[in-house]
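Re: the 107-residue chain
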Amino acid sequence: MISKPRRRIATALATAALGLTLLTGCGDDVDCGLDQCTVTIQRETNASVQVLGVEAKFVSADENTVTMDIAGEQIQLTKGQQAVDVGGLQVTLSSVTSDAIQLEIGR
């Protein structure tokens, strides 16, 4: 039987490993918390980032709507719209500028 101190250490290590797994793939254009990331993608053809184990790729945009390819699925996001479920993630469009778009992606 495992003693309580060893069990606590094992639990702490498992929690730390889970946190690192969730943060994997977060880069300069991705700011991650424990279960959600803010993603900034340039409005360029084929611009993309890796986040929470999936690729988020810019397709097109206008003033309020963005078309993205996330986890191989093409979706349209509208500013102010509720989160869209794609690839097991919740995706929300935060902002659209002439240079970049910003998304919130969470589990």
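The beta strands are 30-32, 36-42, 48-51, 54-61, 65-70, 73-78, 84-86, 89-96, 100-106.
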